[in-house]
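Reposting from the mailing list since nobody answered there.

I have sequence plus structure tokens for a pair of proteins and want to know whether others read the tokens the same way I do. The first protein:
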Amino acid sequence: MPYRRNSDLPDSVRNHLPEHAQDIFRAAFNAAWGGHIGDPRQEEAAHRIAWAAVKHRYRKDGDRWVPTGD
């Protein structure tokens, strides 16, 4: 289901991503969720799309997610 606030995101997102990356994840997830209505793998697709959106703007540096500079 779509997330209303960053505080509603799963722990794996909330506890590891910076606030801005959480905003990106939430927006991409919610858009993807709406675009996959009726798909039995709706949630899985929305999570994959959201992570891909984050990875366009952030990269993992050790244990931290840092902006890519784009």
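The second protein, same order (residues first, tokens after):
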Amino acid sequence: MNNPPDKRHRIISLTAFVVLALGGGMAIGFTSPADAWYAALSKPSFNPPNWIFPPVWTGLYVMIGIAGWIVWDRERRSAAMAVWWLQLCLNFAWSPLFFSAHRIDLALAVILALLVAICAFIALTARRLPVAALLFSPYGLWILFASLLNASIASLNPLP
């Protein structure tokens, strides 16, 4: 027994959104890893151990993908969908700026813009698509923490 084409299409599109978010995040992580430069930076006392980042990001990227798909499935040409794409671009830009370009200052600007985009997405989806907003809430909290961490690292390691 085959699924109806609409249901099959929805499963494929959901899978594509999760693969895009998770696969893109993993690719960025592999191409912009924490290195000796990062290890040598002064960090605040609340800096988490490196091993915590992969499992946290895996869960977040899955939720980001599902939230994006929910909006795409129901409101493809909405402001919420545009903001979802914006936040994904900002998210994917942060690691290369921070870890590869060693631009803590520019990475801080990007992560703060990302935080604004996440809050905008939550606000845009809270009433019409509350599950999407709920899925973005842990992401928003993590990026708030990451912004504080980025800002602390910037203040402890001023530009020459």
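Reply #1 (J.P.):
I read it the same way you do. The helical segments are 5-31, 36-40, 53-74, 79-100, 104-125, 130-156.
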